[in-house]
């Protein structure tokens, strides 16, 4: 059985000031059917760009310079025409964004925005569409959906709006739901509600989730597998339980350490020194070398490949140089 | 509450924003953003205010500094009521009371160099010796981890973490006694957040600062604060020292807030209290206890009567009918 989504050697370049900068470098990800997959990284790590490239929504200044994105085993999403993509986007792959206020159109009632998806991807009567929309709103936990469907986005709270976004994303029963920081703009108690809802819905719907977040806690709560991104590269990839128990890449170790030492007042908070390098500052070596406590001679001159720690645990670090190379 | 060395004493602070309607802009209603809040901040401690968006924690911080004029109440800073001063007189006091904002991208003037940004507060507060002022700028910049060369650059040349360092330097250059940090690390990435938190803790020790730390991030608050006040819909629900609050939360709201934090260990599945619904509209708050509509333990009395803020255990205050 082929996986649902396979990203192979994907690279993305940024064109600015008539120069070319690499922002995504050779990443490989495999998402199985019904899997909850997480990408975690800090701002500028390329996690959002990866998701936008799957949806064919990259901004003009950016372009895929290599690799392929296989959907359902055979369709290469990078090769589809704009017209062909319209059939997939919102139907087979849909996406929810961080800011539910800007993602909804303030001029139209909720009803219009949910039914728009059905109108585009299906052939229903108006009555059927309204029926389906109300049912979907009920499933995402909206109270009084019959009345609420007539309201406008500004009349709803942030948590409600995010529920509407989820309803719009799931109404065509997509194979893959990409959630880009879906709870970052929400309060903790509302975040707990939304994460709960997403877990519940995907269990009932046969949908795979690609969860993009900066919050390791969200990953721990929702995902099965996780890829850690740093400066446009996947630096570690493993099952969630493995990653949290046995992190191998110094960046992952540092991230987890700085989160875990929070609350322990007796010690100084662990912090990774320095800042994420900008695309202009990149040299030939490992992109984390300038901040890494274990950096060696080879790290500064030569970028490490992705080494296999064990069957399904990979790490892009020379410390594991004895292990077998997974891919270049 | 004991009053041995309270630097700041907030008594019955209220801030009501009028809601105006109609052509005549008559005041129809009030949003009670801060509704009768009292607390004390001791010398050199970190007092945290936590709560969800709209609970009034930022309005409280700003009312103390009179950036927003409070409607009622008293704010004693070292024994004098700040609200008794005229605006002009109060400006002189602002030297001792500083505020650091969340977003280091919008709180620094993009047209000024770091040096100018840091000189500005000194000049505003009457420093005339330029050489001395410049010396001070270099000192404070180095203190927060910026090099001498960097102070001639503009804010856009810095990353978010470094910009927050500039904001901190700008707040500290006048040797304040009380610093209010309004979500000061919330916009930063985890690894950078840790650097800034360490810097803040270090500076507090060295410069003998008192912090009011306003945040929605309960993990960060646990790390940095000595005492915590939990706010909901403009009211204080629970107030205690940090250790007690996290190990023994009394108020059902605090309990659910703490249980909602995602755990960082996927093998431990936490028992979650998932709250129903959203925070009610502050212009139209529920009767009785503000939390009763979402509270899993609410009973009839909660809808009728507002619970008093009582000292349930030593130095552990709570406003809930369950403990009366």
TrEMBL record, chain A:
The keyword ATP-binding applies. Pfam families: ABC_tran, oligo_HPY. GO terms for biological process: peptide transport. Keywords: ATP-binding, Cell membrane, Membrane, Nucleotide-binding, Transport. It is a peripheral membrane protein. InterPro entries: AAA+_ATPase, ABC_Ni/Peptide_Import, ABC_transporter-like_ATP-bd, ABC_transporter-like_CS, Oligopep_ABC_C, P-loop_NTPase. It is found in: Cell membrane. This is Peptide/nickel transport system ATP-binding protein.
Automatic annotation (TrEMBL), chain B:
One of its GO terms (molecular function) is ATP binding. InterPro entries: AAA+_ATPase, ABC_transp_ATP-bind, ABC_transporter-like_ATP-bd, ABC_transporter-like_CS, Oligopep_ABC_C, P-loop_NTPase. GO terms for biological process: peptide transport; transmembrane transport. Residues 8-258 form the ABC transporter domain. It comes from the Bacteria. Keywords: ATP-binding, Nucleotide-binding, Transport. It holds the Pfam family oligo_HPY. Belongs to the ABC transporter superfamily. NCBIfam families: oligo_HPY (TIGR01727), PRK11308.1 (NF008453). PANTHER family: TRANSPORT ATP-BINDING PROTEIN. This is Oligopeptide transport system ATP-binding protein. It comes from Sediminibacillus halophilus.
């Amino acid at each position: 059985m082929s996986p649902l989504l396979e990203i192979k050697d994907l690279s993305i370049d940024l064109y600015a000031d008539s120069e070319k900068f690499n922002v995504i470098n050779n990443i490989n990800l495999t998402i199985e059917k019904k899997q909850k997959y997480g990408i975690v990284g800090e701002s500028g790590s390329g996690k959002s760009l990866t998701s936008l490239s799957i949806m064919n929504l990259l901004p003009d200044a950016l372009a895929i310079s290599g690799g392929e994105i296989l959907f359902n085993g055979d369709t290469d999403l990078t090769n589809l025409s704009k017209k062909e993509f319209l059939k997939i986007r919102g139907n087979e792959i849909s996406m929810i964004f961080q800011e539910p206020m800007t993602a909804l159109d303030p001029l139209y009632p909720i009803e219009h925005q949910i039914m728009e998806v059905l109108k585009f991807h299906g052939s229903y009567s108006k009555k059927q569409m309204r029926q389906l929309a109300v049912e979907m709103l009920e499933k995402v936990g909206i109270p009084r959906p019959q009345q609420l469907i007539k309201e406008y986005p500004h009349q709803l709270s942030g948590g409600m709006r995010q529920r509407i976004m989820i309803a719009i994303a799931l109404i065509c029963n997509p194979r893959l739901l990409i959630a880009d920081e879906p709870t970052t703009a929400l309060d903790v108690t509302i975040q707990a509600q939304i994460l709960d809802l997403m877990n519940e819905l995907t269990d009932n719907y046969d949908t795979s989730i690609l969860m993009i977040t900066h919050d390791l806690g969200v990953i721990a709560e929702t995902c099965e597998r996780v890829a850690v991104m740093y400066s446009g590269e996947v630096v570690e990839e493993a099952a969630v339980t493995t990653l949290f128990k046995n992190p191998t890449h110094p960046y992952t170790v540092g991230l987890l350490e700085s989160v875990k030492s929070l609350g322990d007042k007796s010690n100084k908070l662990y912090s990774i020194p320095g800042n994420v390098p900008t695309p202009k500052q990149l040299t030939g070596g490992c992109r984390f070398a300038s901040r890494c406590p274990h950096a060696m001679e080879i790290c500064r001159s030569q970028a490490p490949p992705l080494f296999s720690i064990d069957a399904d645990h990979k790490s892009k670090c020379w410390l594991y140089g004895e292990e077998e190379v997974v891919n270049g | 509450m004991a009053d041995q060395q309270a630097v700041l004493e907030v008594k019955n602070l209220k801030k009501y924003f009028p809601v105006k309607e109609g052509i005549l802009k008559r005041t129809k209603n009030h949003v009670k953003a801060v509704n009768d809040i009292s607390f004390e901040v001791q010398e050199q401690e970190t007092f945290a205010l936590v709560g969800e968006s709209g609970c009034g924690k930022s309005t409280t911080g700003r009312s103390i500094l009179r950036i927003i004029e409070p409607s009622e109440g008293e704010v004693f800073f070292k024994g004098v009521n700040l609200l008794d001063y005229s605006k002009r007189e109060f400006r002189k006091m602002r030297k001792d009371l500083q505020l650091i904002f969340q977003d280091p991208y919008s709180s620094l003037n993009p047209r000024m160099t770091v040096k100018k940004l840091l000189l500005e507060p000194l000049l505003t507060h009457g420093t005339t010796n330029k050489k001395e002022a410049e010396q001070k700028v270099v000192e404070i910049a180095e203190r927060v981890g910026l090099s001498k060369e960097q102070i001639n650059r503009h804010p856009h040349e810095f990353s978010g973490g470094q910009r927050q360092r500039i904001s901190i330097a700008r707040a500290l250059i006048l040797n304040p006694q009380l610093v209010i940090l309004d979500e000061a690390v919330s916009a930063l990435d985890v690894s950078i957040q840790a650097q800034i938190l360490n810097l803040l803790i270090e500076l507090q020790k060295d410069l003998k600062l008192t912090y009011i730390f306003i945040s929605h991030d309960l993990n960060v608050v646990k790390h940095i604060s000595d005492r915590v006040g939990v706010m909901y819909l403009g009211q204080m629900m629970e107030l205690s020292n940090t250790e007690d609050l996290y190990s023994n939360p009394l108020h059902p709201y605090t309990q659910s807030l703490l249980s909602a934090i995602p755990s960082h260990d996927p093998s431990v599945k936490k028992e979650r209290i998932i709250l129903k619904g959203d925070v009610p509209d502050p212009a139209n708050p529920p009767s009785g206890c503000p939390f009763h509509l979402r509270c899993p333990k609410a009973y009839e009395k909660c809808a009728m009567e507002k619970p008093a803020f009582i000292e349930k255990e030593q130095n552990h205050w709570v406003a809930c009918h369950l403990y009366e």
